[in-house]
From TrEMBL:
NCBIfam families: PRK10566.1. PANTHER family: DIENELACTONE HYDROLASE DOMAIN-CONTAINING PROTEIN-RELATED, POLYKETIDE TRANSFERASE AF380. SUPFAM superfamilies: alpha/beta-Hydrolases. Residues 97-255 form the Peptidase S9 prolyl oligopeptidase catalytic domain. It holds the Pfam family Peptidase_S9. This is Esterase. GO terms for biological process: proteolysis. Keywords: Hydrolase. It comes from the Bacteria. The lineage of its organism: Bacteria, Bacillati, Bacillota, Bacilli, Bacillales. One of its GO terms (molecular function) is carboxylic ester hydrolase activity.
Length: 260
């Protein structure tokens, strides 16, 4: 039986999904799942269920200003907080892992991260900070922080929103240390699965293709650890094929125990 429990982990409202028979087994491999912009932790339960069926513990946190952490901010205010939300989630991931370890809930080095859209962008940033992430999955995200930030700014200004130059510079300064595209060596050959619909009008597919091409040389000796799945005529919505492939990916790269 799969159990779903609403827990607060390092002050972050989260869902804890795992087989009931494995809940108290700390060496069960753990996956952190970050949701997308304007979404919430509950919206990815169908994927978490499939992962739990395969023997994974899945932790789904609510991002800042989302789900149980929603505030009465306007759409414009939340749009402007996009990068604040991402950077907060990256920092909170470290605190969550630490608390789960200290409580005896998790143990060992089989830890993965998956994200959807904003959650995938969060995942890419986390890869620059946490070498303990053993494998990762991106659903329609991007590792090119600066390029994507410029695109968001341009879109906002085209809609009539005026953004001060000082604010633009401050955002770019803050996100620079987390821009994986400028420090690909930090991946260190860790398994990475990238999925993207080619008709995505929110996060450009070309950014995923660009990242994949940039990484190819780093994975020449281990091509099975890097994969890009692009789907024709798919927009900003995760397909069932992507979900099933992500489950297979974690089953392949996270189930096997890593010797210490």
């Amino acid at each position: 039986m799969i159990t779903i429990k609403n827990e607060t982990i390092a002050q972050v409202p989260s869902l804890h999904v795992v087989k009931e028979s494995e809940r108290l087994q700390p060496e069960v491999p753990t996956i952190f799942f970050f949701h997308g912009f304007t979404s919430a932790k509950e919206h990815n339960l169908h994927v978490a269920y499939l992962l739990a069926e395969k023997g994974f513990r899945v932790i789904l946190p609510d991002a800042l200003y989302h789900g149980e952490r929603s505030e009465a901010e306007s759409k414009v205010e939340r749009d402007l907080a996009f990068w604040e939300i991402i950077l907060t989630s990256i920092h909170e991931l470290g605190f969550m892992k630490k608390e789960l370890e200290e409580s005896g809930t998790i143990k060992g080095d089989r830890i993965g991260v998956i994200g959807t859209s904003m959650g995938a962008i969060t995942m890419f940033g986390a890869l620059t900070q946490y070498p303990w992430i053993k494998t990762a999955v991106s659903f329609m995200g991007t590792a090119h922080y600066e390029a994507f930030a410029h695109g968001l700014i341009k879109t906002a200004e085209n809609r009539g929103l005026m953004i001060e130059q000082k604010m633009k510079e401050e955002v770019l300064r803050k996100i620079k240390p987390f821009d994986l595209s400028t420090q690909l060596d930090k991946l260190e050959g860790r398994p990475l699965f990238i999925w993207h619909g080619k008709d995505d009008q929110v996060v450009p597919y070309t950014l995923s293709e660009k990242l994949y091409d940039e990484l190819l040389a780093n994975y020449e000796d281990t091509p099975d650890k890097l994969q890009l799945l692009a789907e024709e005529k798919i927009g900003h919505k995760v397909s069932r094929r992507a979900v099933l492939r992500s489950v297979d990916w974690f089953n392949q790269h996270l189930q096997t125990k890593v010797s210490s």
